[in-house]
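User: I want to check something. If I give you two sequences, will you return the structure for each one separately, not as a complex?

Assistant: Yes, each is folded on its own. Here is the first sequence with its structure:
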Amino acid sequence: MKRDPKFIIEGPINKVLFKLTWPMVFGVMGIFIFNLIDTFFIGKLGVDNLAAISFTFPVVAFVGSIAMGISVGAAAIVSKKFVSEPRNEVRVFAWETLLLALLAVFIVMIVGLNTIEPTFKLLGAKQEQLLLIDEFMSIWYFGTIFLVIPMVGNGIIRATGDTFTPGIVMITFAIFNAAIDPFLIFGIGPFPKLGIKGAAIATVSSRAIIAVICLYILIKRDKILHIHFRKFTTILNTWKKIISIAGPSAIGLIIAPLSIAIVTKLISNYGKEAVAAFGIVSKVELFGLIIITALASVMTIFTGQNFGMKNWKRLKIAAKRTTIFSLIMGLILLICYKIWSKDIGELFSTDEEVIKVTMQYFGIVAYSYGFQGIFQISSAMFNGLNKPLSSLSIVVIRMFVLYVPLAYILSKLIGISGIFWAVFIANIIVGIISYFWIQKYISRQQNLN
């Protein structure tokens, strides 16, 4: 895809954001479709299997958050370097970023493989689910190397202004996985019936293929990544720069699955059906927020490049327009979930209690999605401004000041619906706070410059 290096910093704001976002919509859709397809097929194996895969969600998201944090850090720095420094410096920086990501997930893999049972017991999984979880995670952990390469690589490619290629890479992954899943899960044709283990094998196999494709794009096609081993002290200096942004970003991203893990523990008190329903809504919710998530991901790049050129007025206008857009999308999602929440529950399970809890969740939380989008966009802009601690602060307020404490208190008072009201309250309050926070920061920088 041909890139105009000045388009992001000089082009019409609406056109720039649209052109950057629409390819990412398909890419993000690919990842969420992958999650939904896995949930759909595993749901056909019964409530125990569906509950088991729901328990894995916060842990899988935790590992992904580490890689995504490094990807965000790399994107924020590369987007600035791309418009201000020699291209060779960008190439070496990209390589050393990937090295850091591989080291991080290798450590996570070793720890994860040796802590499967105690981790999921802590989350509230019962013995019948622990056996299924072990089958899935013992394979999934070995595939983490293939998780990190596309995630970090796509972040680097996006930072140059090319959002089309990462979108294609992600949707290709989803297609591969969807094609393999039913054969390995149900034993179609010559394939053995592997159940939940088959879903893990399909995921790892698909990611391995995509990792190879991504490396080819980085090294051969775009020549963005240059494999070159400098002195270890020099590499450490690069890692420090990345971690200065990636560290808070990763912590911010990790907080979400950690909070979900705590809430999953609370929900497990209401039975495996409630856990299964929470797994469904968590993934369907992400699917509904595809456009807002895609927009937030490109706002880091848009903000980073305009920050490099001190285009403060341009950033302020973009923040206002994306906020209005998020509220409109939130209204659309509310209407959709009010109409189809029962159908969503029935699509993934025939259990009446699972369907009931699914409808209950969307009947409360759907009213807050526009504000959740504002939070996501503001957080992404702070990362692009190299202010990861501000982004982290917003996440901490949402999860640990509001969501988790309220979920605990309200669940004691009014049952499982109290957990859902906690999500609603947290989204509304943090959406308002984050909007005024980002506007105030940009205005202050504009006055100083």
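And separately, the second sequence with its own structure:
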Amino acid sequence: MSWIAFIILGLIAGAIAKLILPGRQGGGWVATLILGVIGALLGGWLGGLLFGIGYEDFWSIQSWLIAIIGAIVVLLIWGLITRRSGSTTTRA
């Protein structure tokens, strides 16, 4: 798969992950789409490393599942990071 197709897959996977995992992750939609690309990359790398699977082509269901699962994992981690850093308040 070409890099442009990979980026498009990651952007769409980020949007789908946001629909599956609604909530208040910091950064809005732009950050979600960027995290989707990162999640697709992470999912592809871990899928290849652990299970010997990877991205075959753009329309493969395997590619989409790997990218969406990776995007969900990255969004969960991002939500934990932003929630933890945003919950600290100072009292006077």
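Because they were folded independently, the notes below concern the second chain alone. The chain has one domain: 3-83. The helical segments are 3-20, 28-51, 61-86.
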